Structure formats: C-alpha cells, structure tokens
Amino acid sequence: MTPGSRRALVIGIGNPDRGDDAAGRAVALLVRGTVPDDVEVVDLDGEATALLARLDGAKAAVLVDASFSDAAPGTVRRFDVGAAPLAIAGFAASTHGFGLAEAVELARSLGQLPPRCIVFAIEGASFAIGAAMTPAVEQAVRAVAERVRGEIDAVA
Amino acid sequence: MAVKTIKVDYLARVEGEGAFKVVVRDGKVRSAELNIFEPPRFFEAFLRGRAFSEAPDITARICGICPVAYQMSAVHAIERAFGVTVTGPLRDLRRLLYCGEWIESHVLHIYMLHAPDFLGYHGAVDMAREHGDAVRRGLQLKKVGNQIMELLGGREIHPINVRVGGFYRVPRRRDFAPLAERLKWAREAALETVRWAAKFEFPERSRDYEFVSLRHPNEYPLNEGHIVSSRGLDIDSAQYDEHFEEIHVERSTALHSQRRGGGSYLVGPLARYSLNFDRLSPLAQQTAREVGLGPVCANPYRSILVRGIEVVYACDEALRIIDAYQEPDRPWIAVEPRASVGTAATEAPRGLIWHRYRLEADGTIAEARIVPPTSQNQPSIEEDLKEFIVDWLSLPDEELRHRCEQTIRNYDPCISCSVHFLRLDVDRG
B99 with B151: CB under 8 angstroms? Predict the structure, then answer.
C-alpha cells in the first residue's frame, strides 16, 4: 500500500473466553507483528456497529471468525465477500444476535465495504465459557494465520 | 378444529435468547407466554464476599448495552449505605455518562432493531439498501453516545472509570471541546430522527398501564428520585420491597416482577416520559408536541418516538452539563465502609433498575439483589400480546407472527440482563 492511503486491516473476531469462539482472536495474535506496519491488526468481540465503523474507509480487510454449522471442527472456509454476499446463517456466535455477517452486508448496503474483503470462517466445536480451544481448531488457527499473511501480501 | 402451529426459531432484533408461545382457541388468545431459557448467570452470588469497590466493575459485566445503568445503581446503593452523597461536578459527570448510554442504546434500538418493523423490512441490512441516509445518521448518532462513554468511562463498552464516590479520573474542561461539537450535530440528528419516525404508521393500541419510574424535584430522572407510579405510588427506593415482588415462573429462568399482591406494571421510556413530561427540556417538549405526542403516551408502538425524544433530551442535557462543567478538586470523595444496607434505583434505557446491598463493617458485600427492567416488564409484554393481537388473528401466519414480534420489540427487551434468540410458537388450536 502506498503511504497515506487508508490501511489494510486484519480483524480477529470472537470471545477469547469461550472455547473455539477464540479462533479469530488467536489468528490476530499470531499475525500481529508479522505483517507490514501499515496493516492494522484489530481484536473485536463481533458487535456489528463497531465492526462496521472499523471497515469504513479501509481499502482491504481480512476478517477471521469462528463459525458453527454442521462442518467438521477445524474446517476452514474462505469467502470473497467483496465479490458475493455472505450467507447470514452460521456466524451466530455473537451475544446480541447481530454480528459479522450483518455488519458485512450492512457495509455493502451503505457502500462502505472495502473493495477487497475476505472472510475466513473456522468451524468450532465447543463454545463453552472458559473452555480451551479444541485441537483441530488450534491447528486451523495456525493454517489460517499463514493464509491471512498471504492475503495481505497480495494487496499490500 | 384444525390444529395450526406457527413457529419461529430465531426472533431477531432483540437482546438475548428466549421463546414465545401464543395459544389461540376459537378466535381468542388463550395464553401468551414469554419463556426465557438462558442459563441463570448468578451475578448476585458472584458479588457476595467481594469488596464494595469491585461492585461497579462486576455489575457492568451484566450487559454490553447498558453497563452504566448497573454501575450507577450499584454505586448509589453503596454510597447510601455508607452515608455518602456525591454532589457537584462529580454528580453531573455521572448524569453525562448516563446520557451517553441512553443515546447509544436508544439509537441502536430505533434504527437497527425497531424501525425495520415499521418500514416493512426483515432487518437493518435490507432497510439500509433503500434508507441508507437514515441508517448512516443512526450509526453516526450512536457513535456520539459511544464517544461520551469512552471519554468518561475509559472505553465504549463495560466502562472501567466508575468507582464508589466518583470516578478514577475526570476529564479536563478542554477535553470536552470536540465532544461538544459532535453533540450539537447529534442534537440536530436526534430531531431529524424523531421527525423521520413520526412518519411511520402506528397501530392504534393502548392499555391502562401502571407506569413506574423515578421522579426528581427538578430533573428528568436518570440517577436520582423517588419511585412513583401513575396510580399514586411515591416511595423511597428503600421501600421497593414493600410494594414490588419477584416471583418465580417455572417456564422461565428469569424472575418476573409484579406489584405486591399482584398486578403488572410498566417501566421504561413510556413510563418515564408520561410521569416526567414536565421535566423534559423545552426543546424535547416542543419536539414531542410537534410530532403529536401528548404529555402521556400509553401506546407502546409509539415508544420509538418517545425514545427519540429521550435522545433529544440526552443530547440537550449532555451539552448543558459540558457547558457548566467545573473541574472538581478530586475525582472522587472518600468513603468509610460500615456495616449497613443500601438501596438505589436509577433509570436504565429500558427502565427502572433497582439494587440492594448488605455490607459488612469492612465493606465486604454480604448480600446483593439486582432487579433489571426487562424482568419487571415481562408480565406487561405478555399482557400486551394477549390484548393487542386479537384484532390481527385473521391475518396470515407470516403477518401475525410479525405483529407479535413487533409487539415484543416495543420493549427493547434485554433478555440477557433478565437472566439470546427468541422462538415464537403460535398455537391456533
């Protein structure tokens, strides 16, 4: 990215104290310090309006969140949300029923979605309070951190 | 008779998880039950054995939308127990912090949760495609509330700067200059919000509620006042237990409140407004009149307008406080623990929130009780449904379900506080 232009963002979403919901935050932790200085790495709890405010004005964003569907724990899915809408279901691990998918689609409706926006979803198994991440999810976190760096290299 | 069941797995646009069931027989609503099945959270038990000084930070964690309400009721109750009164600039700053929470919470509900019901959208995402300017205004307005929270509370959610006796740190006068500019914009945006919402179509429904709120000799109530009702109640918060009771309802993990001996009552914007119209700022009163609101509003579908009026007021009041602000000598006043009991009620965005603490001589919390607004409103929500949907029973299932959801959302219920998706069953028999 050229100096002075709006930064690229890596946003890790989740609750660090709820088992596999910590996956997005764990990726942010691994990525922080390993990407160029003009890339901001952000931790968020997933509240939609805060996420929306973060996306506004950014040229590129890579978002990582835990998902809950019928996929096997640790399954990683990549969505190019700049190209196609994100299905609302599956990202329900937000406390107020208004989370990542709504924020991304609201940003699109308002014309605030970064031109390049990628979402990684890491399938979780346990979202219990105080639980540790399941081994399959921990493994996926390391793999996704590497892929996030690749995405950043592609836009930076 | 044909058996018909309407089921919604997720009632969106409410704070928390629960279910709703309406039973219809022979064209009549037989029962309407709000079932809250979130696991109990045991906050009152967490508080036992902790130092009084921890109460504001522990109770703030009960809710991400209204943490200030919990903090304020906690510090006021404990200060009353210790015989301390916070006055002057510190008291004003608490009011200002509360204004921030009202703006943030009300605006989120008006634009993101409630307006889609009136404009015929599934949610804010759909609404934003055709009402982008309005949604942008809402988001910016909410942000001003967040800015107040950040400046005074230390961060936007779960503020960390509130302590028994005052604050850990108070702002300098000059810190307020940028915020004041934003608030002037916010006040105009709040006026536009009310005018925008006034064009919605409101169902003509009202009930003879017993409104319950605080009332203060000369302020619109936030932190202080007597608990009063539209049926003549006028008590100190210490007498709350003599007039209100919590009952356990088997199907729910939340306690339901009622008047002692029976009878529902209503807390929240409608009650506050109807009992305190004369305490609103001239601008807020004038705006209410402009959009056809009288000094009393008993139509819960119009609560979106009343929330808008309260946002106008909160901006107005915040500007007044900032303009008059004199930096205090110290950010807090000292408190001396003693074996005591203290109660306090304050006005959360969703209504009256009552706390009671029993404290030991060294300030350890021996017992804590917290009554949030949504558990007080649950019986009223059920009664509204029973009464209001009768004329809508002939509607197709989809429309009837929507009317039920809208009726629940009138309350901006915070189910997480009262004990996160709401399931709706309509059983037509």
Answer: no
Give the closest of A45, A49, A110 to B128, CB-based.
A110
Q: What ipTM was assigned to the predicted interfaces of this complex?
A: 0.74
Calculate how close chain A gets to B297, using CA atoms only, in Å. Answer: 29
Domain that holds residue B342: 3-428
The two structure tokens encoding residue B77: 């109750």
A102/B123 Cβ within 8 A: yes
| DSSP reduced 3-state for B203 | coil
Asked whether A46 and A92 are in contact (CB, 8 A), the reply is no
**Separation in Å, CA of A42 to nearest CA in chain B:** 15
Tokens of A9: 């963002």
Q: What is the pTM of this model?
A: 0.88
> From B62, which residue of chain A is nearest by alpha-carbon distance?
A95
Specify the pairing of strand A60-67 against strand A76-80: unpaired
- Burial of residue A140 (CB within 10 Å: 0-12, 13-18, 19+) is buried
- Domains contained in chain B, number: 1
Of the given ranges (B229-243, B294-308, B380-394), which has the lowest mean pLDDT?
B380-394
The CB density around residue A72, as the number of other CB atoms within 10 Å, is 8
A45, A52, A95 member nearest B139 (Cβ): A52
Convert the pLDDT of each residue in A10-33 to its tens digit.
Answer: 999 988 888 999 999 999 999 999
State whether A96 and B420 contact (CB < 8 Å). Answer: yes
Judged by a CB distance cut-off of 8 A, whether residue A53 touches chain B is yes
Per-residue pLDDT tens for B236-283? Answer: 999 999 999 988 877 676 778 899 988 999 999 999 999 999 999 999
Domain of B161: which CATH number?
Answer: 1.10.645.10
Interface contact A109-B125, CB threshold 8 A: yes
User: Which residue matches tokens 């406080």?
Assistant: B321
Lowest mean pLDDT of A85-99, B64-78, B129-143, B340-354, name the range: A85-99
> Are B331 and B169 a contacting pair, CB within 8 Å?
yes
CA B157 to chain centre: 16
Determine the Cα–Cα distance for residues B105 and B69; give it in Å rounded to an integer: 11
Place of tokens 């990215």: A1
